[in-house]
Amino acid sequence: MAAGGGEKVSMCTPAFASRVVQSRWFVVFASIVVMAASGSTYIFALYSKVLRSKLGYNQETLNKLSFFKDLGTNVGVVSGLVQQVAPTWAVLLIGAGMNLAGYLMIYLALTGRTAAPPVWLMCFYICFGANALTFSNTGALVACVKNFPESRGIVIGLLKSFVGLSGAIYTQLYLAIYGDDAASLVLLVAWLPAAFNVFTVYTIRVLPYARRQVAGGEKAYSTPFYHFLYLSVALAAYLLVMIVLQKQVRFSHAAYVVTSTALLVILFSNVGVVVREEYKAVSQLEDSLQHPPAVAVEEPPKPTATQKDADDESSPPLCGGGGMVGCISNMFRPPALGEDYSIMQALVSVEMLVLFVISVFGIGGTLTAIDNMAQIGQSLGYPAKSINTFVSLISIWNYAGRAGAGYISEFLLARYRFPRPLALTAVLLVSCVGHLLIAFGVPRSLYAASVIIGFCFGAQWPLLFAIISEVFGLKYYSSLFNFGSAASPAGAYVLNVIVTGRMYDAEATRQHGGVTAVGDKICKGVVCFKNPFLIITGVTFAGAIVSLVLVWRTRNFYRGDIYAKFKVAPAAAAADGSSSDGGRVEMVQGAEDKSKKKKEAVNEDLY
């Protein structure tokens, strides 16, 4: 089909389909699919009761398993370093294999197909399987942030929001595939993320980035992200409606199949945004070739020494070169905020230390609440169906926190220069309210607590990851954002295992006349979780106070345009006719001749 004469571009050609799959926007779509299956760690509460009853675990042992799950989920240092030296497809395949192996062994133990493993081996299984999610997250998140560096807050919020929804997605899918069988949920967790990783393995990658200005400005460039957001809102609303309906009406297995099919249709409809953007791009290219504009090109400014170092990919990631002496010297001489730090420069900085504290106190506390939600509901006398509702509500509001924190903080930063660290402080303070509702067991307040905890837990992640990318640069982002989240398991271990688990078991033992509470022997009443969550409230408030140090140290950095270097279009065409003194060059003559040749080449490729 000829492209000239104003004829429309055809979307029904192999060339156009290939363009779509190889596009920057398809990387976003594929990453959304991977992220939608990467939140299995947040549904531990749904199958923890089966672990307790079938393997005879007490609450401290459950919380120990939960800690190793969180350890595997958040310590992604290995995946970050692998991403630095290996292609993204290798990172995704490693994650698929680890996920399948780890959770499959847990499923075999739960169903009696293997002998009941010792607790230490179960801890290894769940840590190994959960660590696979760091490979998926690293591969997808880093690729998208590097492909869209000037929209990183929106990108991180969008992708992490689908992680937040994945808990509710898993709940619907396992009811449709396996029925109400919590042990089979573990099997779903084993194969679904692996399948999605394999499905997208060759489409998620970092593409060459050219700084550019888009017709219509930043708003036009970010419009597709808002289309992705609208579809994610539709998916979240659909899941919320299903949660409410399933609480009121008894669904048959066939009904679950129908509703889950609709869920998958909404999820995969994101590919429509990609097709639309590529169709627009091809149409605009055709139009520009038929009506070539006069082009004004300026020689790009010469890079500074710092920028040269940032572009030197041969420098070692840990120290930035210079041998051992140079390494130690460079560690304590970091570049300006926003430039590319080496890994060691970032790790010894005050900013990263504050982020570690926030991760330990803030994320550790909300993780404890999420992992114990089923037991909290049991202790307060809520029915089993309501407890499943709490878990699903956490997933929905986890999504809302991630999406809201990403998009809203980006808007406030662009419009009002509102610093992202201050938004993180506000989230920590709000989460204290949810912890207090659990501590005092206010009647019917667990619904509100699950909403607050889910929202605040979700909001912390995109804020944390965006701050790391903005303060320390993108060169070693795959390693640094994994270091940033690695501290949260420490907080989860202290607050979940040592504080909450032991206090719960002590109270349960007292209630059962001194007999150790294992299996179906549980603690009843507000007193079971009161003291642990008062402690969690205190440390979370302390984390909010410490975060003000980061707000103060970055105040001048966030007052400027932190994305300025990504918005200036380089003079890529200067070689076609620039003057010897590197000044301004007007390239009008011969534009039509060049455009005809380019048009013929494009027509040949597209049609």
TrEMBL record:
Residues 291-316, 574-607 are annotated as: Disordered. Its main location: membrane. It is a multi-pass membrane protein. Gene3D superfamilies: MFS general substrate transporter like domains (1.20.1250.20). GO terms for cellular component: membrane. InterPro entries: MFS_trans_sf, NFD4_C, Nodulin-like. The chain crosses the membrane at residues 25-47, 89-107, 119-145, 157-177, 183-204, 225-245, 251-275, 352-370, 382-400, 421-440, 446-468, 480-499, 533-552. Residues 346-558 form the NFD4 C-terminal domain. It comes from the Eukaryota. Coiled coil: none annotated. It is found in: Membrane. Keywords: Membrane, Transmembrane, Transmembrane helix. Residues 24-274 form the Nodulin-like domain. Pfam families: NFD4_C, Nodulin-like. This is Nodulin-like domain-containing protein. It comes from Urochloa decumbens.
